[in-house]
């Protein structure tokens, strides 16, 4: 008796300590011809294939991805969305921030530990490139998942908006003085699992864990599983107390994990509906002409000999309010805060009357030296926000509790993403509730932790995180088109711990081959860090996206230098894109 008990305990312990493995992938980034909706176009794929592969690992594993750029005419780089990169801030991926972009024929190796189980995705974080296709699911499993006994099978569903023109064309078209209404590119359709459809084989009596990922560049999606309730267990790879939901709204970059149970006596095929919402704020029907133009009906297929013809009708979309989810660990909000970062977002015009997006009337302008490389090479001066240039820098000290308040002065809802942390969502007010009152009251008692939160139109959200992960982390709108308009802030976290941090040689070489400086202040000045000569202070009037111009070395950066002038943000506009 004793010995057999002992043995089974031993087995459990062994499973718990399952040895952390190294999981390696080779990613050659290549152009691929694809027609996911019947319309053929070039897309950015991996190893001559598209859709891009799913990365799978167990929690605690070291993931090694060797990336070689074989695009010929574009630079690239990958962000591992939702992985907080504890102690590996140089692996986060955004070009011009945590690394230099990777030129054609260059190779870099990303290496980091996947320390928290959940549903993630990876995508290009290089100048508007991911809507052209470079994105894929990334699943980190926990062999001891407390919910493991609750499901029999796993299903990944990705949803995304889709475009027929390449991003470069779309963004060039958007960034014109004639675009006085700040219109983003409008998608031509909805892809589910990159167009391959998503009928789910369903067996009576079994439970399914659905991992829902939104790859969108713009649009939100709503999902409804007919008469089947969704039992939500995770948002953005962070566990929540199980919450049942009839409808879920998923914004760009968000993820939900939920369980669907097939009844023991079920024997028919059940339709489910995914609707793409390209309305600016679903709570405001007056903004309606573009509401629900694209629907996808999939089926939970119990019996493939029976017809797939029923449809799932939703009279009115009324998704569960995810800001009321509760953190699984029951933790309350961090008490008080040491640093307040208040960000008023609205569309704005630059001095050349180009449409931009601003936090506190300042638009993000990419500098010459990646911001992390400035932080690690400028010694004690790295606490001075001035040396980073116009990247909307906010310096927070190691150990600070930071409160971010986003006041969304635009009429549309926008999803905001923080790198390096899962923040607590203390409050996410209703559509048109106005800006934050300045009073810290009425907050959630067990706030959900997420990496992406939707802030409703004309409203606000209050977020907190603890600065326990030194690095340079972006906070930005995850509507890719708005990133290209400059809707980004940069958190310089724990600069005292970043001094002298070493950057791997292959990452430095990625800069060298393009003549991009990798030390000193924003302009690469290594003698006098407060000397702002060479800072880029006016957004360029030409847009080259990820385009690589071999003859001029660093391509668009060279051109941008020629356009430096003094900035003056005066006229502010009000966004509109119906
Ligand atoms: C997942 O596991 C947690 C912890 O055991 C439990 O509270 C929760 O109810 C489980 N969720 C489901 C869907 O079984
Ligand atoms: C692509 O862009 C061109 C030029 O702006 C435009 O005429 C065309 O309608 C666009 N095509 C699609 C499919 O969006
Ligand atoms: C994905 O996110 C975008 C951007 O917020 C949103 O417009 C779209 O509806 C989302 N898709 C789904 C299926 O929720
Ligand atoms: C998509 O589905 C929604 C909800 O059922 C409906 O209101 C809308 O009209 C549908 N759109 C189209 C284009 O059929
Ligand atoms: C932004 O500019 C507007 C108009 O000039 C001004 O009213 C507002 O106070 C400014 N906001 C911030 C945060 O500076
Ligand atoms: C560094 O540059 C700043 C700005 O141009 C200037 O004010 C300062 O005197 C310079 N410091 C040194 C030591 O040259
Ligand atoms: C690069 O090559 C691809 C594939 O041939 C092409 O579709 C694209 O337009 C080219 N140019 C740029 C700037 O990306």
From TrEMBL:
Domain Plastocyanin-like stretches: 29-144, 153-277, 365-495
Keyword Signal carried by entry: yes
Signal peptide as annotated in the record: 1-20
Keywords: Copper, Metal-binding, Oxidoreductase, Signal
GO molecular function terms attached to this record: copper ion binding; ferroxidase activity
GO biological process: cellular response to iron ion starvation; reductive iron assimilation
CDD domains for this protein: CuRO_2_Fet3p_like, CuRO_3_Fet3p
Cellular component, GO annotation: high-affinity iron permease complex
Pfam families (alphabetical): Cu-oxidase (PF00394), Cu-oxidase_2 (PF07731), Cu-oxidase_3 (PF07732)
InterPro entries linked: Cu-oxidase-like_N, Cu-oxidase_2nd, Cu-oxidase_C, Cu-oxidase_fam, Cu_oxidase_CS, Cu_oxidase_Cu_BS, Cupredoxin, CuRO_2_Fet3-like
Gene3D superfamilies: Cupredoxins - blue copper proteins
PANTHER family: IRON TRANSPORT MULTICOPPER OXIDASE FET3, MULTI-COPPER OXIDASE
Similarity section: Belongs to the multicopper oxidase family.
Protein name in the entry: Cupredoxin
Originating species: Immersiella caudata
